[in-house]
Structures are given as C-alpha cells and as structure tokens.
Design a protein that fits this description.
- By secondary structure, this protein is α/β, with parallel strands linked by helices.
- 39% of the residues lie in helices and 15% in strands.
- The strands form 4 sheets. A 7-stranded mixed sheet has the order 4-10-9-8-7-5-6, sandwiched between helices. A 3-stranded antiparallel sheet has the order 11-14-13.
- α3 runs antiparallel to α13, α6 packs across α12 and α14 runs parallel beside α16.
- The longest helix is centred in the C-terminal third of the chain and has 18 residues.
- It is globular and about 60 Å long.
C-alpha cells in the first residue's frame, strides 16, 4: 500500500478521523457516554426560558476546604523535584492516619510501603491495571460491571482479553450477579472490575458479596479491582472496604490482599476532582508491577500535590461536611418527588415514567427541551447484552450542585411528573 492509499484508510473516534496507523481497537470508544448524550440532545430545541440545570457530570460543584490552597502554596519549594513512582514516608504517614480513622481494623495490620502507591485519581490506574495482567492467561477475558465507568472498559481493553459484561439491574439488586459466572469464564478471567458504592445506582456491596468476589479471584487466580472512589460518600450505612473484608479472610500466602486492589480518591471525598490524587492499595506483587509500569510511562503525582492530598486524608471534618451536604440534597429532592435515596455516592438513578414506555432517550430529550434539565439516558451507560441493556429505562442525575439548585431541580421534576 502506497502512503497515499494508507492515508485514505481511517476510523472515526469521538467525532475525529484517525488514520489507520492507529489502533483499530480504539473504535470501542466511539460510543463514549458523553458523546452519545450530545448526539441525543444536540438537535433538541430549548423551549423553556429557565436556566439550564446540567446534572450529567459527576463533578462536585461545591468547593474543597478553604485551606487547600494554603497547603499547596506552602509546598511551592518542592515543584522542582520529579514525582516518584512510590509513596514517600510523609504520604504513607498521612494515609495511615486516614486508615486508622476510617478503617480502624486495618490499622497497623500491613506495611503500607509494600501495599500502597499514590495515583493521579482513579481513572488512569483503572486503565493501567489492565496492562498489568495482559498476557497472564491464554484466551483470556476481562469481566466488567454493566453499566460501567468508561475507565473500567478501557482497562479491560488494555488487558487484551475478551470483554465480558456482568449486568447490574433491579433484578440483581443493582450489583453485578456473580452467580451467573460459569467455571469456563472464570478460568479465563484475568481481571474483574467492581465498584462500591456503585456508579450509577449508589448501592453498597455487602461484606459477603465482596468476600464472594475475592474468593472467586483467588480460586481462579485473577485480579479483583474494586473502585472505591465513593466510599466516603454515604447516607446511613458506612461502606465496608474490600480491604477490610480481605483482612478478615484467610490469605493463600503471606499477603493479606492477595488478588485484590482497591482504588481510593479525593475527587469525591474532598471535592477535589482537579487535584488528581489518591492511592492504590492491595496485592503486593501487583503494586510492584504497577510501580514499574508508571515509572516507565505513566503519570505520577507531584510532591506538592502529595502534601495537599495528605492533608486532606488527615482531616475528616471537611468530609463530614461534604457528606452531610449530599444527604441534605437528597432530602430536599425527596420533598418534591418520590425517589429511592441511594445508599452512597451522589447519583440519582431515576426510573423513566411510564408515559415514555421505557424510552430513556426520549425522556431525556423531553426534560432537556421542555424543562431545561440535562440528564444522562441510562442506556448509553451500558453495553447491550443477550439479556438486554441493564441501564435502559433510567436516567442518571448527578446531584452535585448547591442546595438552591437542587431545590429548583426538585421543583421542576415535580412539575414534569404532574404534567404527564
């Protein structure tokens, strides 16, 4: 093929044209959730003069603690240093304070230096973990909760295996059903992505559920990845970390976290999504492998940002304030419309009213055009499977705004429902 011919071969990705020299597997990203939302809503005229309420993105709209900037300014002397692929002692000490306060049963039970590495939020490590297990098994597969956060699917793609989606629906208690996994699939599995509290449902996985997932990971020798980015945002039931569950289980060797990694982030806990800081904790061998991956070609957390992250992990008061803000937000909403308040996180998983016949895209278009509410149709968050789309018939609403806007959202939803 001559160069001119080569340049004429292309694939589409996120609305851009990519030359065929690029990875054709990237075509999987063409159905990016937010791209689909734009396509569904772009041609819908706004027929209301009310201010647009955009509840599509799970991005905290309330500020982080006031003192965050002061800590960052005090660390300006450390900007000249290259970030490290491992946690320095100061960060480990900070995380130890957080673990003792939040997960006291884990305090002093393991060597943090062997089991923890700082990460720039959860998205990149969720992806890179797939590379860490690539080639571990022949004819492999990666198991992904469905609906999914896009980084789980990116990690599954990076693993090189067939992506197998595990539906989480009302019928399964909004958690992926582990009972449907047969031995043949589990034997091929190299990585399983779970999340608790779940995105988008806000369901908290029980210790028994987590234990079952970890037992399967150890029995069939795959990596269990638990995304705990919402673990500090809850209503009445404090979520149990998979690390706590592992600590109560007999380990196959001297590693209490064998076959398990957990991701923790300050994006939601501290309203600090722009900080890009958190930690990865778990299986010692996996942590070693991950450090090698990022040392050779991954983003690292700069030292000044580690100091800010450490200060946030040491302080629990601001998280209590943030958590109460979300609790109050859902109370405000429930005063306007009947809703099922999620156990954790800040998303409302809103059932589409019967008038729309289960068509979540049509409902989203109506809310956008007639009521000025921009939502995510559930069906774009999940893969169509033989058992259908587990997210169809729902809308995801990110309840992340101040209470005045949440109250306005509740009023509009009430008027919308009354109009049907």
């Amino acid at each position: 093929m001559c160069p001119e011919q080569h340049l004429n071969v292309s694939i589409s990705l996120m609305g851009f044209v990519l030359l065929s020299m690029l990875n054709p597997d990237f075509s999987i990203f063409n159905d990016n959730m937010f791209l689909q939302v734009r396509q569904i809503l772009n041609d819908v005229p706004m027929q209301t003069t009310e201010e647009l309420l955009d509840v599509t993105v799970g991005e905290p709209q309330m500020p982080p603690p006031d003192w965050l900037a002061e800590v960052l300014n005090a660390e300006s002397k450390n900007w000249q240093a290259y970030p490290k692929a491992f946690a320095d002692q100061a960060f480990l000490d900070d995380v130890a304070v957080y673990i003792e306060a939040r997960f006291p049963a884990l305090s002093g039970r393991f060597d943090l230096a062997d089991h923890i590495v700082p990460v720039p939020g959860t998205r990149e490590p969720l992806h890179l973990l797939g590379w860490c297990v690539r080639g571990a098994k022949q004819n492999s597969c990666a198991l992904v909760s469905n609906p999914f956060y896009h980084a789980w699917r990116a990690g599954a793609l990076a693993s090189g295996g067939q992506i197998v989606y595990i539906n989480a629906s009302a019928e399964t208690g909004f958690l992926p059903s582990l009972d449907i996994l047969d031995e043949a699939t589990l034997s091929r599995c190299t990585i399983l992505y779970l999340c608790t509290p779940t995105n988008p449902h806000g369901m908290i996985a029980s210790p028994d559920y987590i234990a079952k997932a970890l037992q399967l990971a150890r029995q069939f020798n795959f990596l269990l990845v638990v995304d705990e980015c919402y673990v500090d945002i809850w209503r009445q039931t404090c979520p149990t970390s998979a690390l706590e569950v592992a600590n109560q289980m007999p380990a196959p060797g001297d590693d209490p976290f064998a076959n398990l990694v957990v991701l923790n982030s300050l994006s939601k806990r501290s309203n600090a999504a722009g900080l890009r800081a958190g930690f990865l904790c778990g299986d010692k061998a996996l942590i070693v492998a991950y450090k090698l991956v990022v040392a050779n070609g991954g983003a690292l957390v700069p030292t000044p940002l580690l100091r800010v992250a450490g200060a946030l992990y040491r302080d629990d008061q601001h998280n209590q304030t943030i958590r109460q803000h979300y609790t109050t937000s859902f109370q405000i909403l429930s005063g306007h419309v009947p809703i099922i308040i999620p156990e954790g996180g800040f998303f409302l998983w809103y059932p589409v009213p019967e008038a729309f016949g289960g068509d979540d895209a049509a409902c989203a278009q109506h809310l956008f055009g007639q009521w000025g509410i921009k939502t995510v149709p559930g069906s774009v968050m999940a893969e169509q499977t033989d058992d259908g789309n587990p997210a169809a018939g729902y809308l995801r609403l990110a309840i992340v705004h101040d209470h005045d806007k949440v109250d306005e959202l509740g009023q509009r939803l009430a008027r919308f429902e009354s109009s049907l």
